Amino acid sequence: MELTRLRGFRDLIGADARAMSLVEERARAIFDRYSIKEIRIPVLERTQLYSRSSGETSDVVEKQMYTFTDRDEGETAVALRPEGTPGVVRAYVEAGLDRTDPEQRLFYSGPMFRRERPQKGRYRQFYQFGVEIFGRPDAASDAELLIMIDELCRDLKLPFTMEVNSIGDQKCRPAFREALVQWGRAHWDELDDDCHNRIDRNPLRLLDCKKDAKVTESAPKSLDYLCDECRAHFDIVKELLTAANVQYIVNPRMVRGLDYYTRTAFEVMASGLGAQSTIVAGGRYDGLVETMGGTAIAGIGFAIGVDRMALALEAAGVTPTIAPDAAIISMGPAAMRHAVIVARDLRAANLNVEMLSPERKMKSLLARASKIGARFAVIIGDDELARGVVQLRDLNESTQREVAVAEAARAIAEAREE
Ligand code: ATP
Ligand code: MG
Questions:
Q1: Is the shortest distance between the CB of 114 and ligand 1 below 6 Å?
Q2: End of a domain among 247, 280, 315?
Q3: Backbone angles phi, psi at 202, to 5 degrees
Q4: Are 271 and 260 in contact (CB under 8 A)?
Q5: Would you say residue 254 lies in a domain?
Q6: pLDDT, tens only, 234-286
């Protein structure tokens, strides 16, 4: 047996990992400004949690979950989380917040697991950064989330498009669902087996039929079936987005894959990502808390696909730097000791500094400094040590001058600002 990683699972090293944490850092900073608090939930939960919330007929529950039986007395069926929302709702209800303090604004982040066919932007372990807002049935909260997502994508300098739709609620959705079933039966021959199965089991997903996008052009649109309340809600969402200067497109064919969504649904697509271009997806789920055994409390949320957002950054040429500002080169045992202190002083001046192994020759050390992308080499030998200076070498311009450590720090910082 080869000890290789599993299909669909990735190792992210250096710049690739940095792109992911950059997305997470920026999202976290923006969520702070929207007063969204962190929640950490388990990676392993009861399998039932997902079948109850996401729906037995959703793709995630039907075919994508990693499940096994725990070796406890009850032989509990457990699953690696395929998404964050059910766990957050469970935690919210389990902590009694639906009764004691129902208005909550929470974010989670971490790995999710889905056993689907791996391809670019689609992995079996991927990362989500998600938000769930509880106790806010009003359209202002939908708009606020969309404004926040718009802000994040613009902050990351990503080219993107935002699509919104309303899929109605318990009152008006049944008629839309029925219309889809009728449409599906009438267009049976144009649909593939996958979609034939959806007609009775999960008719909303008929709109996701991948075989031929043209087929669904004649399908009924959710917006034509909205009740007055759902329509008024959606109108306010659109009005607020326009007022906030958020660019969006109404896509009356967009549905979400999970059963619990009501009213507002949305997706953000990044340009230049090909088939797996959806980087943010979410919507309102007003019935979910009750379904999960809590009180009837409204909810709305979304998840950022962090892996795809990192790919989008790369496609847009917005790659985070992992190169240090300076590499420290020391020649000889006494200079090496001094170099530790010089490195500390430069880091105290907020510079990113990497010390190179003292065991090599100057030529290979300079080559190493260039290889790791450092703009400067700070060179210290016994002579520099004795005179309290360093040689500051600009590796871009191949110039070198002798300066005091404080002056080196200033020059390096200045070059970074350029
Ligand atoms: P898709 O239609 O691409 O399968 P989905 O509807 O299953 O997406 P959600 O469950 O809404 O996706 O998850 C939200 C986001 O998480 C997606 O928009 C995507 O960015 C990301 N995501 C979902 N599945 C994967 C995966 N297997 N690999 C990488 N990212 C994923
Ligand atoms: Mg999917």
A1: yes
A2: 315
A3: -155, 65
A4: no
A5: yes
A6: 999 999 999 999 999 999 988 876 667 899 999 999 988 888 899 999 999 99
Are 167 and 307 contained in the same domain?
Answer: yes
**Spatial separation of the C-alpha atoms in residues 305 and 123, rounded to whole Å:** 11
Q: Is 347 in the pocket of ligand 1 (CB under 6 A)?
A: no
Identify the nearest ligand to the CA of 116 by its number: 1
Hey, which residues does 301 pair with through a beta bridge?
A: 132, 283
The percent of residues in the chain predicted with pLDDT above 70, rounded, is 98
Task: Assess whether pLDDT exceeds 90 at residue 109.
Answer: yes
Q: What is the arithmetic mean of pLDDT over 277-303?
A: 96
pLDDT tens digits along 343-395: 999 999 999 999 999 888 999 999 999 999 999 999 999 999 999 999 999 99
Q: Flag whether 214 is in a domain.
A: no
Q: How many CB atoms lie within 10 A of CB 282?
A: 25
User: In the chain, how many domains are there?
Assistant: 2
**377, part of any domain:** yes
Domain stop point among 315, 343, 358: 315
| 217 CA from centroid of ligand 2 (Å) | 22
pLDDT at residue number 373: 96
Strands 353-355 and 326-330: parallel
Same domain, 156 and 74: yes
And the tokens for 319?
Answer: 């790659």
The CATH number covering residue 382 comes to 3.40.50.800
Ligand with smallest separation from the Cα of 160: 1
128 CB near ligand 1 (under 6 Å): yes
284 in the same domain as 409: no
Q: Model's pTM, two decimal places?
A: 0.92
Q: Is residue 189 in some structural domain?
A: no
Is the C-beta atom of 116 inside 6 A of ligand 1?
A: yes
Shared domain for 247 and 383, answered yes or no, is no
Range(s) of the domain holding residue 386: 326-417
CB-CB contact of 294 with 89 (8 Å) = yes
Q: Given the DSSP bridges, would you call strands 399-403 and 390-394 parallel, antiparallel or unpaired? A: antiparallel
Task: Tell which atom from ligand 1 comes closest to the C-alpha of 122.
Answer: 28
What is the spatial distance between Cα 22 and Cα 358, in angstroms, rounded to a whole number?
Answer: 32
Domain containing residue 262: CATH number = 3.30.930.10
State in Å: Cα 305 to ligand 1 middle.
6
Cα(64) to centroid(ligand 2), Å: 9
The reply to whether 253 and 371 lie within a common domain is no
Residue nearest to atom 26 of ligand 1 (CA): 122
